Amino acid sequence: MDALARPIVPPAPYVHPEDLSTPRLVIETLRNTLGNWSHNAFDIPFGRRKVLGVDSLLVNDPAGVRQVLQTSMASYRRPLAAVRPVRPLAGAGVLLAEGAAWRGQRRMLAPAFTPGTVESLLPHFHAAADSLVDRLAAAPRANLADAFHRAALEAVLRSLFSLSAGPEQVALAAMASDYVATAGRPTFLDGFARAESDFAFAGGARRRFQRRWFAAVDRIVAARRAGPAAADHADLLDRLLAVRDPDTGAPLSDAEVRDQCATMLFAGFETTSRLLFWASYLLSLDGAEQARLRAEVRAFPPERVAALEDLQNWQRLRQVLLEAMRLYPPVPMIMRQVVTPDVLCGESLKTGCLVWISPWVLHRHRLYWENPTAFMPDRFAGKANPWVTEPAYMPFGGGPRICIGASFAMAEASITLATVLARFEWSLESDRPVMPVGGVTTAPDHEPWFRLESLETVQHHPGGRH
Ligand code: HEM
Q1: What share of residues in the chain are helix, strand, coil (percent, to 5)?
Q2: All residues at 6 or more sequence positions from 279 whose CB lies less than 8 Å from its CB, including other chains
Q3: Contacts (Cβ under 8 Å, ≥6 apart) of 137
Q4: pLDDT for 428
Q5: Is residue 31 part of a domain?
Q6: Model's pTM, two decimal places?
Q7: Integer distance in angstroms from the first to the last C-alpha of the chain?
Q8: Whose CB among 108, 114, 279, 384 lies 3.0–4.6 Å from 324's, allowing a Cys bridge?
């Protein structure tokens, strides 16, 4: 089948003909935050609505989005309801910092995410991808959601600490994932809190998690610091330890190093593993596209990738990853709350108003995309970094707080997917559609099994590179 002539329209939750009444909106939102939208949301530049007494504005207009995330960013901050559940995972790291503290941290961390640094991490991405395919080779079927979760964790652990994912690290990932699905889910108390410390009586599970999580990250950092120093800055911990405050020359304190590591661990693996899952799912729905990518990867096998510019050889693969993040943005919602009254999209907003910027809605918006629900990687042809150049494409957020790990994630995902493509052909065992469910990340409603066919003709090699 020619995928260009008849593009595939992959599964997505039902879009309601009319805006939902408040009770139904609440029910649908609890069920799936991607399943509460009406057709209207995908046509309008913005929409305002009061839900349970809270004034909220959905912003689709790219100029409005830029205003919130960039030109008037000081008038907006993450709402407490979004901060409280994440604090135990990310501490005082850059993800949740605000104002001058955020600016200082972001400036100090920037050298750890330059193209040169990401290039120095490529061997870690290769090593994580190689152990993924070795694990997949052990059985003719696989739960790829789970396999990519482990692989993305391994990539970030190796990149941060030069560590492979042993049992203790796998337990660490399980701890974070369980937390997000249980005590870390936002509650109605988060919605009513006026300060982070409010309703402390109900925060026992979060405090216990934070103690265990930080203690585990402390142990890893301590073990790694006790080992031989890596003079060549081969991992991100080296970079963090080398960071100096540009004004005072002071290094980061132990707690600061720990909080940044915990932040990177959390922000880095859940998101990239979702991207890898949805890209593989789309490629199992579109076998012609999968074959096309395999041909591209065979022409330039993963083991030849030693520098970032080598990734240019996989243009089509990049387009598929970009299109996967358009259709299934790993972070489906970016929330802000007004802290200084502002006029946005012509609407006067008072302090406390919630502003919703939804990559899910924006990426499927009819004003900005042709055939928005279809899988058409061609739309990204010739667009190297569309998250910077395309106003309605924002899988990594936008403005000065745009994801610091975007090129890290793109390089890691390219190497991982290419390594799997070179080694296996895959298809779904069942016809049951996999539905995206909105949460902190866009998760599958069930984890499907994939049939894997090993491609014996392709030489898998471990040596040479690392
Ligand atoms: C496909 C993978 C990824 C996606 C889709 C993604 C998405 C995002 C988004 C949407 C934001 C902005 C959130 C907001 O403004 O409210 C963000 C911020 C952030 N991301 Fe990522 N991310 C990915 C991978 C990574 C990786 C690999 C790392 C680190 C190793 C990372 C670290 C961060 C950090 C530290 C922030 C906060 C930046 C700041 O506030 O200055 N992310 N990410």
Answers
A1: 55, 10, 35
A2: 320, 321, 324, 413, 417
A3: 423, 454
A4: 98
A5: no
A6: 0.93
A7: 40
A8: 279
pLDDT > 70? residue 230: no
pLDDT digits (tens, 9 = 90+) for 326-381: 999 999 999 999 999 999 999 999 999 999 999 999 999 999 999 999 999 999 99
Other Cβ atoms within 10 Å of 4 Cβ, number: 11
Residues forming beta bridges with residue 354, ordered by sequence position: 56, 337
Give 165's pLDDT tier (boundaries 50, 70, 90).
Answer: low
**What is the rounded distance in angstroms from the CA atom of residue 59 to the CA atom of residue 64?**
6
Residue found under tokens 């692989």: 151
Domain at 98, CATH number: 1.10.630.10
Give me the number of domains the chain comprises.
Answer: 1
Nearest residue CA, atom 12 of ligand 1? 397
Q: Which atom of ligand 1 is nearest to the CA of 408?
A: 27
- CB of 295 within 8 A of CB of 455? no
Quick check: is 363 in a domain?
A: no
Q: Which atom of ligand 1 is nearest to the CA of 160?
A: 30
> Is 408 inside any structural domain?
yes
With beta carbons less than 8 A apart as the criterion, state whether 459 and 119 touch.
Answer: no
Report residue 351 as tokens: 């302090």
Residue at 280 is within a domain: yes
Give ∠ CA 433-183-324 in degrees, rounded to 5. 30
Test site for ligand 1: of 271, 276, 402, most ligand atoms within 8 A of the Cβ: 271
Q: At 190, is the secondary structure helix, strand, or coil?
A: helix
